[in-house]
Amino acid sequence: MTTPALLPLSGRRIPPLNLGPPSFPHHRATLRLSEKFILLLILSAFITLCFGAFFFLPDSSKHKRFDLGLEDVLIPHVDASKGAKNPGVFLIHGPDEHRHREEEERLRNKIRADHEKALEEAKEKLKKSREEIRAEIQTEKNKVVQEMKTKEKKPLPPVPIPNLIGINGGDPEDNDIRKKREKIKEMMKHAWDNYRIYGWGHNELRPIARKGHSTNIFGSSQMGATIVDALDTLYIMGLHDEFRDGQKWIEDTLDFSVNSEVSVFEVNIRFIGGLLAAYYLSGEEIFKIKAVQLAEKLLPAFNTPTGIPWAMVNLKSGVGRNWGWASAGSSILAEFGTLHMEFVHLSYLTGDPVYYKKVMHIRKLLQKMDRPNGLYPNYLNPRTGRWGQSDLQKKLAPVATGLSMPGLGIGKIAEELRQELQVLQVWPPARPPRLKLISLPFIFRYLYLLFSSDDLLPLDHWVFNTEAHPLPVLHLANTTLSGNPAVR
Prior knowledge:
Keywords: Disulfide bond, Glycosidase, Hydrolase, Membrane, Transmembrane, Transmembrane helix. GO terms for molecular function: calcium ion binding; mannosyl-oligosaccharide 1,2-alpha-mannosidase activity. The chain is mainly alpha-helical. About 50% of the residues lie in helices and about 5% in strands. Helix 7 (about 225-235) packs antiparallel against helix 8 (about 240-250).
């Protein structure tokens, strides 16, 4: 018998694939032994689970307690036969439970009554007109504001005022000078009366248009800058009725909790300086309280990496910024360098050294910084602590004498100033569109003092701030910053 030749695998014929329904061989009609064992194991586990669950069923006695309801589960039965008046009587709930139920019922009734009352009030509100609803809302706002003002008027700790000399008097001996002095007082009263009529409460007055005006240095709020700025002038001139009118407005209306962006420099020299001067001259506590309230609103302006304050600050949010034109957003030396006097007086009057520390930090920082050619530049970046650009510093660098007339007469700057003065001569005179703040407190105060004798606000006892508000000289002998100044 011949054996068939072995062919390579690639040459073998592979039967075709059957794509029809699968056909199982006859030996798969029954389960294998291993598969039977697995099914038996699953069935045994199921039977064991069913019988085991039977032992975890709750006790019938506990089941009966649940049938009594949730109240009976939480509060056990009370057997009245033990110590009760009627033995053999069982109470489901004791007297405490009845009291508890009564309290719950009263609470439900109160909630229901409050709900019905709220619905009735809502119905009444809907019946009212829009104007009446706005009036009620405004009334509630005024009530809240009044409560806040009452809290803000809490007195500050008493501090002895320095020995004040020269508050009154100053009558000149010369009759002609006395007449000029009275004329200045008359001019001040004329300006004040017209402001009282046409611009009361506004920051400034437009005398031609006869209406109030506000500059961007005080934001858009009516803060009565002219009133605050003129108080000490009124007091020095003896215009006490006008002074009391301004005091009443400050006490009733002046509010610093407004969403307004103000100049730190202007608010400090005009408001804080004016309020402090009015306090020292009159002794009225309200001026000191208002000055401290405003100073607290200015403190967030010092929250910079260097401690140099921002030029502008929002009185409500405390967010600060600088003018864009000031050397790419730098702080101005002439502004943050003139906060010292007012802030030292604030620490003296309150006993809080925070104000003193703020301005002393500025002074120490400036002392450590370089002065190019012996002169401080105009601008300082509050973030980096670096000087900004200053054209004036560059022009005056060769002349270390400062802004004196000999200094201005040397070099190219003198010729530039002469050219500017020639242009000023050809400008036509124009009437001022508004009564500037500088008119009432600044010019009239200095003119009045100029025609008064030297015993009125003598300069060895008083010093004037940038806005000409007089503040008493604080000597080290009678001043400490711990809140307990010694009396001289």
